[in-house]
Design goal:
Layout (H helix, E strand, L loop, with lengths): L1 H17 L4 E2 L11 H7 L13 H12 L19 E7 L2 E6 L4 E6 L18 E8 L13 H25 L2 E5 L4 H8 L5 E10 L4
Antiparallel strand pairs: 1-4, 2-3, 2-5, 3-4, 5-7, 6-7
């Protein structure tokens, strides 16, 4: 019986990945959450997560808070130097790998594969609900494929990614979710999984999920 349950669990997981598709997110709840000063007071990093998936509403609110469109001119909740908006947010979940399209508020399917284990070196990334990966698309700053990218080229991109990460921290504090921003990433193998071009640079990752009590 135990083997049968295990087999069914594996089968359902495989089916979920096989039929993964773009996710049209519900409208974000812009009136929910805790007051700003309370969220700041409760902001923290955690390293122990439950395996519970986020609801689509939580995903919607999380990604809109991170870098969603908040004005008619398509500018975002997080600032961007020269308004290049060069930071792409990849979303790794059990159901697959996605790219957040802020303009359409949609998760675009990149790969029918659970790549969470590639998003960091810590064991908790394997089972947490969501791992966000912040990638600088340097083509939007004028750097072509094959060109050398220096640390100075990435200075403002790191700042832009940090703004997004802080938005995520504040959302998670407001929504009673755990999160932690991470720099410990095997960037070469992750870049392969993401299918990145030579002028795309992985900057940071951030794990989000339910907190263990």
């Amino acid at each position: 019986m135990k083997n049968l349950v295990l087999s069914l669990t594996v089968l359902l997981s495989l089916c979920a990945c096989a039929f993964a598709q773009d996710i049209t997110l519900p409208a974000p709840d812009k009136k929910g959450g805790k007051p700003l000063m309370q969220a700041l007071n409760e902001r923290k990093s955690v390293r122990e997560f439950t395996a519970d998936n986020l609801t689509q509403q939580q995903l919607s609110d999380l990604l809109w808070a991170a870098c969603g469109v908040n004005r008619p001119d398509k500018r975002r909740t997080a600032p961007s130097a020269m308004n290049n908006q060069e930071i792409d947010v990849y979303v790794a979940m059990q159901s697959g790998l996605y790219l957040y399209d802020a303009g359409a508020h949609v998760l675009k399917l990149v790969k029918n594969k659970d790549v969470r284990r590639y998003t960091g070196t810590q064991s908790f990334v394997n089972n947490a609900a969501v791992n966000l990966v912040y990638v600088a698309n340097m083509g939007r700053t004028g750097i072509r494929e094959g060109a050398k990218i220096n640390d100075a080229d990435l200075f403002m991109s790191y700042s832009d990614a940090a703004f997004i990460a802080q938005n995520v921290y504040l959302y998670c504090a407001s929504a009673n979710l755990g999160c932690i921003v991470r720099g410990a990433i095997s960037k070469e193998s992750l870049a392969t999984e993401l299918g990145l071009k030579s002028n795309h640079v992985i900057l940071l990752a951030q794990t989000v999920g339910g907190m263990r009590r």
